[in-house]
Design a protein that fits this description.
Length: 319
């Protein structure tokens, strides 16, 4: 990790103020960078060292305004699941055009969707992109456009792929608000598919640190990286770690097929159905290339669970 990187006086601009973007903004401040955090309203709570900025980065004007004089732009924008195939290509077009104009480097937070169904094979940066889902094909097409822009010299781009998020502040994940509130209160805990299969989850703090490292280290440009991710274990094993931390057995309901339940409403699950294969075959992501190249290691699972439970205790207590 480049913790001693020299301070840049051009801001590092983070697009998207969800858990990844907010965590990244804090990590960049910790590393000594001036930070601009962009979303549509700029009305979130203040973060020391962070300038909040309002812009719609799905538009050319909004993306150019957001990029401004930034040295590095981080694309952490996400949208409601049912809008992804419509909106994400617009965001990409606007953001790419902006950095091509300003000369800022671009670091993109990416997913495992382009790989599609793997039959349980370990996913590395060399795995084939064979998605058949709408959202997987869309993500693969966007990624190829990013890399093509880099190859053509129009932009300097690095892609950081993450497995399913887990960690402090993560709500909308299969290991988020469907799990930890119930674990703490004795309520229902939801799980998807075959919970005895290995499944990778990436600590949101490792997402932030990994993206910040890519932003500081331009030698990583022009390729896909897997962000630091702990070795895959089964979701059942993670439940056991959570049980030890909270001191009670979990009341687990397993959804063997996509259907509305808990925080996952009918519209979301209808859209998620094509991605449900992620829970019926092993999802094993390897991040050894990043770990070797940048001298980092992912946070251990027990640490991730402990920090996540602590955050949910505070979150539930504040509601």
């Amino acid at each position: 990790m480049s913790a001693a990187a020299p301070q840049s006086y051009a801001p590092h601009t983070v697009l998207g103020s969800g858990p990844a973007g907010t965590g990244l903004a804090r990590e960049l401040v910790r590393r000594g960078h001036p930070v601009r955090l962009v979303d549509r309203k700029a009305d979130g709570p203040g973060i020391e060292g962070v300038e909040r900025f309002a812009a719609d980065v799905s538009t050319a004007d909004g993306a150019r305004a957001a990029a401004g004089d930034a040295a590095v732009v981080y694309h952490c924008v996400n949208v409601d699941y049912h809008l992804q195939t419509e909106v994400m290509p617009r965001v990409q077009a606007a953001v790419l055009a902006a950095v091509e104009t300003t000369g800022a480097r671009l670091v993109v937070l990416d997913t495992l969707y382009p790989y599609g169904e793997t039959g349980g094979a370990v996913m590395t940066e060399d795995s084939p992109w064979q998605a058949t889902s709408r959202k997987g094909r869309m993500r693969a097409e966007l990624d190829e456009r990013y890399l093509a822009a880099h190859r053509a010299g129009r932009a300097r781009v690095a892609l950081g792929r993450s497995a399913d998020f887990v960690g402090p502040g993560v709500l909308n994940s299969s290991l988020g608000a469907a799990v930890f509130p119930g674990a703490l209160t004795g309520g229902e805990v939801l799980a998807f598919g075959d919970i005895d299969l290995p499944h990778s989850y990436t600590d949101i703090r490792d997402v932030a640190a990994g993206l910040a490292t890519l932003g500081e280290r331009p030698e990583g440009d022009g390729r896909v990286w897997h962000l630091p991710t702990a070795p895959a274990v089964s979701t059942r094993e993670i439940h056991t770690v959570i049980e030890k931390r909270v001191g009670r057995p979990l009341n687990v309901t397993v959804l063997a097929e996509p259907r509305p339940a808990g925080p996952f409403d009918e519209r979301f699950m209808a859209e998620y159905a094509e991605m449900f294969y992620q829970h019926t075959e092993p999802q094993i992501m390897e991040s050894a290339a990043f770990e070797r190249s940048y001298g980092v290691a992912p946070k251990p699972l027990a640490d991730t669970v402990d920090a996540t439970v602590t955050w949910y205790e505070e979150w539930l207590g504040s509601r």
